[in-house]
Design goal:
The chain is built from 13 helices and seven strands. By secondary structure, the protein is α/β, with parallel strands linked by helices.
């Protein structure tokens, strides 16, 4: 196996990561250059690293926090391929992982393109694949992404700045019906129709704060739920702009395909739609039979590809949640390739 020296395929030369520095200190790690605190760090290493000389893929490299932990746990021979859809994150991770250049390489790609990305770096099978879904604290808080209703950034929400659809286009060009179903399906928003109608009435909408205030004016500031009233709207937009759920299913399939026998798939999700997609995917892959229940004798010939290792999801400890409140919604699932 050839393992190429670390470079991105992202073509982000000249990019200054400092330009996506979020304001303030909330959520910062102890390294001044690193903003995101990796979730379930020791649990990921414990469940992912099956051999010290293994080849691992971090399919959501982010700022490289899990990547560092995997490389530290696999000294001296373990190797890591890091993938991220956001070339700005790769720039940050590559700088952080520069000391590991002999054992680390990275590729700009979505995890739905995991197999091609791995093959392009000479990796044809892996001992572990990590998918830490969602967004990093830096992406959430840096105004340029427009992910947060607390920022006054543009309504962008793309992980990859080269991808065609922005949240601005969705908000300002989709019909009321399209917006309502998007909010319902991707945000599980009970007031989807009212919010969609208000959006259409108040267009054009240019920035995240204006949208968040419109949602508050429509559904009220005080919610029985503990979350901000615009949380589901922003989640729905993010999922739609990045086609997250379809890409997640393809990514999971590719990860299982890439794993060697005995290799581990570790997935951390942060909201119920993601977790449901992961749970359903693993249940099907682990099933001996996938025939519809009304068929009395199995005719599907389905062969299980994985064994689920944790029947109950793994969640952050109270200590972790107290130190990093953003970890509170994390759910980790682990499977072993058969
Ligand atoms: C929660 S962060 C990962 C943080 C990382 N584990 C760490 O410790 O720093 C999720 C990352 O996944 C990336 N991402 C989102 N969708 C992706 C996709 N389809 N393919 C690859 N990366 C994706 C985001 O750009 C982000 O950097």
């Amino acid at each position: 196996m050839v393992f190429a020296v670390s470079t991105t395929g992202g073509g982000n030369g000249g990019f200054d990561p400092g330009s996506i520095d979020p304001p303030g200190d909330a959520g910062r790690s102890t390294d001044p250059y690193i903003y995101h605190r990796s979730v379930l760090l020791s649990e990921v290493v414990e469940h992912l690293v099956v051999r010290r000389d293994g080849v691992y893929v971090d399919a959501t490299l982010g700022e490289g926090g899990h990547g560092v932990a995997i490389l530290d746990a696999t000294v001296p021979d373990g190797r890591l391929l890091g993938i991220d859809r956001d070339p700005r994150m790769l720039t940050i991770a590559e700088r952080r992982l520069a000391d590991f250049a002999a054992r680390f390489t990275s590729v700009h790609a979505g995890y739905d393109g995991l197999i091609d990305a791995a093959n392009s770096r000479g990796v044809d099978s892996a001992d572990g694949v990590l998918m830490d879904l969602g967004i990093s604290s830096r992406q959430l808080e840096a105004p340029g992404y427009g992910f947060s209703f607390q920022s006054n950034g543009p309504l962008d929400m793309r992980f990859d700045p080269a991808s065609p659809l922005t949240a601005h286009e969705v908000i300002n060009t989709f019909t009321e019906d399209e917006l309502a179903s998007l909010l319902r399906e991707n945000g599980e928003e009970p007031r989807a129709r009212q919010i969609a109608r208000a959006i259409v009435r108040h267009r054009p909408i240019g920035d995240a704060i204006t949208l968040a205030e419109l949602v508050i004016a429509t559904v009220g500031r005080r919610s029985r739920r503990r979350i901000h009233p615009a949380t589901r709207t922003f989640q729905a937009l993010r999922i739609a702009v990045n086609n997250e759920l379809d890409i997640l299913r393809k990514g999971l399939q590719s990860a299982v395909q890439l794993l060697a026998t005995g290799g581990r798939l570790v997935v951390i999700s942060y909201h119920s739609l993601e977790d449901r997609a992961v749970k359903q995917f693993l249940a099907r892959e682990a099933a001996i039979c996938v025939c519809p229940p009304e068929i009395p004798v199995c005719v599907c010939g389905h062969q299980p590809t994985v064994r689920i290792l944790n029947r109950r999801v793994i969640r952050p400890s109270l200590t972790e949640v107290n130190a990093n409140p953003r970890s509170r919604s994390a759910r980790m699932r682990v499977a072993e390739r058969l």
